[in-house]
Write a structure and sequence with these properties.
The structure is a homodimer of 764-residue chains. With 764 residues, chain A is α+β, with helices and mostly antiparallel strands. Helix content of chain A is 32%, strand content 26%. In chain A, strands 1-9-10-11-12-19-16-15-14 form a 9-stranded antiparallel sheet. A 5-stranded antiparallel sheet of chain A has the order 8-7-13-18-17, with no helix packed on it. In chain A, strand 9 (91-100) and strand 10 form a beta hairpin. At the A-B interface, strand 22 and strand 23 of A face strand 22 and strand 23 of B.
Chain lengths: 764, 764
């Protein structure tokens, strides 16, 4: 792979072994749909997919509620003579596949020789529109390099793959007003999904054309007879609509396609590009001195963005919209890995993500109630309603073939405090009090109530404890007083007390309404206070400064991941609960204490350092979330080489196919690791630039990687847009001239109030 | 097998397949040693063993601290010509092996034909002396039926088996004053064990005699040339002594053997028989109408008795002294299954067993402390010191070969309340206030303190809970508010409050000393009171009357054991934690609620009935403890047929070799199920006779099995000896004329005070 502009990723040779990964890496999307970067002629067996958010459905006999992979409206097969143009047949010359990240364009350009000697040039470009998120748009140009007969089959291919069974119980396809239409209904919830497709062809007329209906397909079949160097251009406009979003998805889809065809490819593209310009205007991170780092930064920002729904309050999936794995659902990653970038670059998108947690509060209430608690226990795997989508049985014991009862759904309670963490981050960064009134407070109160129902008081120790937990380190289920969970829980309770106080003072009517809704009383607030005060928080050991991950962790066998790996009987074994090789050892999937220190600014540097040095060698990084957090804390604790190594691990997981697993026994396990992508932003901004949010502004304590000459980026902090320019010698922070107030900036030279248009430069 | 007298068990043919089981069933013992009912010429490969209590030692590399199998001082091989007399060679005529349970005698009588045609009659009798528990005594008579040359090798065979490795690091053997002596030192604790052996021979003189030393053996080798019908009788007296009991085990052993030889076999036997007479005088249960039941009752009483140390305060092993399995250590079975028989027949023996728990209090304190608690957390597997002998890893996952971390040692906390239950049972039955002052109170206080440190308070529910438990039903680890544990814990706390109050009133000095020792304060007692009052006790469902075994039990998959059995991949799989087939189902190893109802008289009949009917079909009886408890509760709830079926299951586990496992992959798993043996007494007395202890006496609500014509037995209740005679029509209770006071007896005809010598007869 290479880059020409620092904005594109170019592939100059095709590898069949990589097609799962490249399908993800070259994908396009807009937060509504993710369209994998596959080839036009490919079918289900090569993992062509268009995953659409807000289409959760459970196929028959499956335990997974997941997003639908909808029929492929861009499906286009070209027969050169009798031969299908394909990477696997004939001979491909000048192979070129590219992702233009600046504008979310997938490009393909090849010269193809058929076995019969025909020479055809093909150039394809497509995008998922940012200006109308329902639209997929493609320009398909074919040029004959000698006289040739072509048969072009293009239309809607409904023979899509689905990892857990068929999601559509009906496929109705027909032609209407020159558009092809496929109406589908999902199996479980009867959601109506409509694919409408239209084409505009320029160049020589087809000698014949027909509409062909096959099983789950409706296609146009054109025959072209082209002279040497004649060119045909097919512009395709495809809409994907469904009635979870739109009242009348059929009419809307037809309207979008009809209008799109009228506008034409270039016009559609130019509107789309304006939106991308607006995005990158704030979101770009510029790195000089290291082109690889530059492209990796942009790739991860690009993937983070296209994974994130912006049109409605919906979750960011753990694999975004790159595939069905992880059900297109939000995990705790959303708040801890994905949210921060949006909070500090596009707060209106962040607001949607946090509002989503309010929208799904009833699901969290239902989950709490079902498990014998009250308040809000957020789903470990959260789709549209917030009801728990995670099944009781997740992993399979590969040695026995028996399913394992994992307790991600019921013991990993930190999800609820994590949601509060996200709300608070958004609120602190934006001062969006209106959001707090409308959404935030209710969630915070309900999480506090959940914690009241979840904690236990140890009278003899005069402290509250939280028992039977699973922390982010998923190898150790069933632990008590997990440091990460307890600290975050205390954080949540403190915020509940704080917000209650502010509401009581300033918004008694809203408070009264919230008390009616949630059932909380002044007594509840006393309970929150008491628990926050008496909740056991494992402290740094006075001698070593290390915080114990959970009660008894230090008593576990102290070995390293490599040794534990050697104890595997089967390399596919799960290392964790209930009887995996890591369970009785100190070996971690990811380090909870490091995660805690990455989120909380309240620990002194020596504690950060001691914990990093203790936990790092014991961490296996079995989670794609782990490397970025380690990079961040390594950077903050003066371990620049490890910081950079972990940064590279996090940022290349997908692009370099460095993930532990892509395929397993024929199952698709690929897709974009959205949290890792979000984590890359965290490493650069929190780690290398040393960003810290202050009460009225921002602080930077940079530690620029050795190979980087400069780093610049923008942030939106406390409603002020600031631009940060960082070199090996100094840092300057510019307050955007459009800002409406001065902002407090702390650099090595001290704390200053920077007025709109002013620059504050400091030596490092 | 057959019986002639109702006191003996006779085997008339030998089965090699049954030798593990018959070795246990025909064993002799005296609570100090258990000598397996094997043949004189056998060696380690046929599981000859003499297990001696109070010899706990851990062999090198083992995780098991277990009792030693000491060298076999009765080892005797007879060569007829060149041929070893053996069940496996030549031809055995008139085979006869018998156990005389009235007097603890093992008998063997055979006519044996060598391949060369020699005909020899052999008659052997042996016993483990009840009058001097260090002595094994044997009479070995051989008679030639034609002229024959015999070589007799008899002495001490130190080549014994040990299931977890060699326990002796040195074997010193020598002859001294015509005795053979073997001195051994154990590997871990350097305990000195001495075997001394002497013989007295009557009949024709040996033509030659020699002492032969072989590896770990010292033997006498005699050659006899016998004419037709000449008989030689060898009396052997063997002592087994060790320095955990005796200051000078060598001198003592030599003295015991020397004196024993002087007394001679018949005198030794007659003193021994007097002791047995005294035992059976109170302990016999007479059943008419069903000889099988009669013999089973006696067999189980016999095995219970010989398993129980009476010379010192020592535990009853879960396999008694029948083998090394379960480490000769006490489990909760001691209090719940074995203790009651002694409490109500030989209270001085019961006193030793409960005093043993006081002697091991420091071990229980150490265990509590090690696990982060205080007070006394009794060992799941308790040997001499009361330190936990149960290893962290017990079962092996047969599918992976990987050890399983079972939590019997740390989550099965009911052991501590069970110890209090035992103390209270003894105290209630005997009124032994002196015992309470000297032993009981301290244990009860320390268990209460342990519970204080173990419980959690749920403020929002205003109740105490006990979290992360394993109840008697070992298939469901990691449960909360296990009914059995919570009820027993409350029971313990109430007793602590009660005893504290009595001491404060009557024995302030003793209380003050106990407070010094235990560190309890008046505040502690307030804590006990509060926890006893607010501890969550799962109540019978108002509609169904069923008590939930633990939080969430009713939500588990409701299937039956047979269905779950079909899910096994390997029949050897453990059904329980962490991922066994029963874990996510309602299928139980044994039913905790049934166990609770069997121990506590406070539940009404309809609750007993509802729970029996709910839990019985869901119970797999994977524990040998389970059938007797089911028999007892079935009998109390008007399920006479099931009661009798479970009675038969419990009472035949060993005698009919009905245990689930005897050998597994070459490992010895046999031995006597001591708790089942104790349980048989419980079924007959509590179940069929419907015995209930009253404040000042006893109550009987009989439900005699259909085939039984009468049942009679004695009990010692509140220092009064009573005899119960039960027929199908009536019951009469006689107060022994030696009693010093009247006793309250409740029968169907009402409650009466029965004076010494009086009989109270009531219709049923």
């Amino acid at each position: 792979m290479s880059t020409e502009t620092g904005w594109d990723i170019i592939e100059n040779s095709f590898s069949e072994e990589q097609l799962v990964t490249t399908g993800s890496n070259f994908m396009i999307g807009n937060g509504y749909m993710g369209y994998r970067g596959t080839f036009d002629e490919w079918e289900a067996d090569r993992f062509v997919a268009c995953i659409v958010t807000d289409t959760w459905d459970q196929s028959e006999g499956s335990r997974w509620s997941e997003l639908c992979n909808v029929p492929n409206g861009l499906f286009t097969q070209l027969y050169v003579g009798e031969e299908l143009l394909s990477a696997f047949e004939g001979s491909t010359q000048q192979y070129h596949r590219a992702l233009d990240m600046k504008y979310g364009l997938n490009k393909r350009k090849i010269s193809w020789l058929s076995n019969a000697g025909g020479h055809t040039d093909l150039e394809v470009e497509k995008f998922a529109s940012l200006s109308n998120h329902h639209l997929l748009v493609m320009r398909y140009e074919l040029a004959a390099r000698q006289y040739e007969t072509y048969k072009l089959r293009t239309g809607i291919d409904g023979r899509v793959w689905s990892i857990n069974g068929e999601h559509f119980k009906s496929y109705d396809s027909y032609e209407k007003d020159e558009l092809l239409v496929m109406e589908l209904h999902t199996c479980e919830l009867n959601t109506l999904v409509v694919i409408a497709e239209g084409v505009k062809i320029s160049g020589p007329q087809a000698v014949s054309s027909a509409i062909v209906e096959e099983d789950k397909r409706i296609l146009r079949e054109y025959v072209f007879e082209l002279e040497q160097n004649q060119t045909v251009v097919i512009e395709k406009v495809v809409s994907i609509t469904h009635d979870n979003e739109l009242k009348n998805p059929l009419d809307s889809g037809i309207k979008y396609v009809t209008e799109g065809l009228e506008q034409g490819y270039e016009q559609l593209k130019s509107e789309h590009q304006l939106k991308w310009d607006a995005f990158w205007d704030v979101s770009d991170i510029r790195i000089s001195g290291n082109e690889e780092a530059q492209i990796l930064a942009r790739f991860n920002i690009y993937q983070s963005f296209i994974a994130t729904p912006t049109h409605e309050n919906l979750p960011v999936g753990a694999r975004g919209l790159s595939c069905q794995v992880y059900q297109g659902a939000a995990f705790w990653d959303q708040e801890t890995f994905n949210l921060p970038m949006f909070v500090f670059t596009h707060p209106h998108i962040a607001r949607r993500l946090v509002a989503y947690r309010h929208d799904t509060l009833d699901g969290a209430r239902r989950k709490a109630k079902k498990l014998g608690y009250y308040g809000a226990f957020y789903a470990w795997t959260s789709g549209k309603t917030g009801d728990e989508l995670f099944p009781d049985y997740f992993f399979t014991d590969v040695l026995s073939g028996r399913p394992i009862r994992n307790h991600f759904n019921c013991w990993q309670i930190h999800i609820s405090p994590d949601v509060v963490y996200g709300i608070w981050l958004y609120y602190e960064a934006t001062q969006d009090w209106d959001f707090m009134l409308q959404y935030g407070a209710e969630v915070i109160f309900e999480v506090a109530q959940f914690l009241v129902s979840r904690v236990h008081f140890k009278k003899d120790k005069n402290r509250y404890e939280i028992i039977r937990l699973l922390g982010p380190d998923e190898y150790h289920e069933n632990v008590d007083n997990n440091a990460y969970t307890n600290y975050l829980s205390q954080f949540s309770l403190e915020k509940a007390v704080l917000i209650y106080g502010q509401l009581a003072l300033n918004e008694p009517e809203i408070l009264s309404r919230l008390m009616d809704i949630t059932g909380i009383t002044p007594q509840s607030v006393e309970e929150w206070k008491e628990i926050a005060e008496l909740l056991y928080l494992p402290q740094p050991d006075p001698r070593t400064h290390v915080i114990e991950q959970f009660d008894g962790y230090f008593d576990l066998e102290d070995v390293r991941p490599d040794e534990v790996r050697q104890r595997l009987i089967n390399s596919e074994e799960y290392w964790g609960w209930p009887n995996g090789v890591a369970v009785a050892t100190q070996v971690l999937k990811q380090a909870d204490v490091i995660q805690l220190l990455a989120l909380m600014d309240s620990f002194p540097k020596n504690v950060l350092k001691a914990n990093y040095e203790y936990y790092e060698p014991r961490t296996e990084h079995g989670s794609s979330l782990s490397p970025s957090v380690h990079a961040l804390v390594a950077s903050k604790t003066n371990h620049p080489e490890e910081a950079y190594r972990y940064f590279m691990e996090a940022s290349t997981i997908d692009l370099y196919n460095a993930s532990k697993k892509v395929m397993s026994g024929g199952s698709f396990l690929g897709g974009i690791h959205t949290a890792a992508a979000g984590g890359v932003w965290l490493v650069i901004i929190y780690g290398f630039a040393g960003f810290e949010l202050l009460k009225d502004g921002a602080k930077f304590q940079p530690a620029l990687p050795e190979s980087w000459e400069s780093l610049s980026f923008e942030l939106v902090v406390k409603e002020c847009r600031i631009q940060i320019e960082l070199t090996t010698n100094d840092i300057s922070v510019t307050s955007h001239s459009s800002n409406k107030k001065e902002i407090e900036i702390e650099l090595a030279d001290g704390l200053r109030f920077v007025k709109p248009g002013e620059v504050y430069t400091s030596a490092l």
